[in-house]
Amino acid sequence: MVVTNQIDPQASPFDLSTYMAERRGQVEAALDKALTVVYPEKIYESMRYSLLAGGKRLRPILCLATCELAGGSLEMAMPTACALEMVHTMSLIHDDLPAMDNDDYRRGQLTNHKVYGEDVAVLAGDALLSYAFEHIATQTKGAPAENILEVLAGLGRAVGAEGLVGGQIVDLDSEGKQDVTLETLNFIHTHKTAALLEVSVTSGALLANAPRPDIDKLRRYAQRIGLAFQIVDDILDITSTSEALGKSVGKDLKAEKATYPSFWGIEESKRQAQQLINQAKTELHSFGPLNRPLLAIADFITARTH
Amino acid sequence: MVVTNQIDPQASPFDLSTYMAERRGQVEAALDKALTVVYPEKIYESMRYSLLAGGKRLRPILCLATCELAGGSLEMAMPTACALEMVHTMSLIHDDLPAMDNDDYRRGQLTNHKVYGEDVAVLAGDALLSYAFEHIATQTKGAPAENILEVLAGLGRAVGAEGLVGGQIVDLDSEGKQDVTLETLNFIHTHKTAALLEVSVTSGALLANAPRPDIDKLRRYAQRIGLAFQIVDDILDITSTSEALGKSVGKDLKAEKATYPSFWGIEESKRQAQQLINQAKTELHSFGPLNRPLLAIADFITARTH
After folding, report:
1. Which domain covers residue B163, as residue numbers?
2. Could you tell me the sign of the dihedral formed by the alpha carbons of B214, B217, B222, B225, in that order?
3. Residue of B nearest to A128 (CA)
4. Phi–psi pair at A237, nearest 5 degrees
5. Do B152 and A152 touch (CB under 8 A)?
6. Which of A128, B59, B153, B228 could disulfide-link to B84, CB 3.0 to 4.6 Å?
7. Looking at per-residue confidence, does B5 or A241 come out higher?
8. Residue A197: inside a domain
9. Measured between CA atoms, how close is B52 to chain A, in angstroms?
10. Full-model pTM
11. Count of structural domains within chain A
12. In chain B, what are the helix, strand and coil shares in percent, each to the nearest 5?
């Protein structure tokens, strides 16, 4: 696959929305190509329904941007970028199920199980998850095999009981409870949200064969923007509208969920998010001007509150 | 991890039940060690509940036996052997869900969702699936990294829309239909059952870095025993008792499912299964006496009908 890099991240001034739109287009073309419809059509259609339903494509873009920052190419990171979106989509499909969050809408569209049925939705998630690993293992070119194994290991950890699933379990357990601590809330979100953002960034660096100290800095960058991202999500659930977000709002209050604003109030939540973003950006100082997409993405996360 | 190989597969006469019991013990010890309970305990307990609920451990044993046949060690195949059982367990947990086959019992025990709830059961399956890939990627020692990537790719393909999930989708679609063809029935079972047995065998050979023609022979062996295994399963659903199988029987008839006996009758089904087993064994003739476990496992599959 040839991916043309039409955006020069060193060009001044750096325009994030142009950069994001360009990368999103490249990711969506790669996702579309990665998953064609063959017999039995229903499962592929169901996988594609959710995978190609839009969204910011933040995880793939983080992976691509970090790979370039670390001296790698878009081509070597694209299969992993697509896999990250497949895993993210799987988690959305399964979280939306009646037995979990029971959501009818996602990104302004009916959820997968509302269109295809619960059985197909469970299986579409399973298939996207296993295909994510397969896609990385078969399609990644130009990176050392040992590093690809490390990417696969990191992705597995980010999805399973030590990542997404662990966070979701504690989240489900905490619903309606009055005594949820800030520590528990942090556990939920470092696992449900930050873990996958973290592996999005570190996998890009691993594929480019970046030095370990650089990977550690990028990991801390990702952890901080991951937590900030969730704080902002909690704020938006209170302050935004259903139309603007493309999903239900006010759900946290209705479900009596502990959120950052419920601990800190909205203003302090915004301040904490901004502080995390500043810390995240500090981790990028030692890198060259190719750090501009990651700096701008960090700012973009808190910009969503305004 | 040190796995002692106390069974000499060249000893005469070869006793399969001793061999299977020994290997089963080794696999169960490795599974127990691979998955310890930490916070949040509920997800790990739920994963362990189904993973350590017994069963023949046929997939891991096939992987270990093939790796040894191809000149590899038990140690290098054990992480993949465990991963195969994790994937198999995931498929059972999700297939048993109310939205799918709606089974209350499995191997004589309550199904995962009857004990832990549907939400936890969906997540336990997801976590087992992602952990399977992680476990292979982090724990496999002594095999070339490129071959480990090939094992991961094959496992992904065997689970996803081109394997287990694809078979299950067509199976769900065929229920209650009067016009299911033999071709469709074959599609269901080559995908639902044979695909994972196939990757169990080929992954053992890949880890041992076996020559491609040997891998191809072993693949055909696995495809044939896989289909024979399903024919026998269909026969047992009619002729066996719930106590003997540890799961519900007569379900296929009740669900008006197409089965091999519904096409061929029981006697012809037995004959077809036996023919597949004979073909499978022929593929092993060019190997040395280390082929005895795989020969005996092939015979064991049809012995179950008597």
Report:
1. 16-303
2. negative
3. B160
4. -60, -25
5. yes
6. B59
7. A241
8. yes
9. 17
10. 0.93
11. 1
12. 70, 0, 30
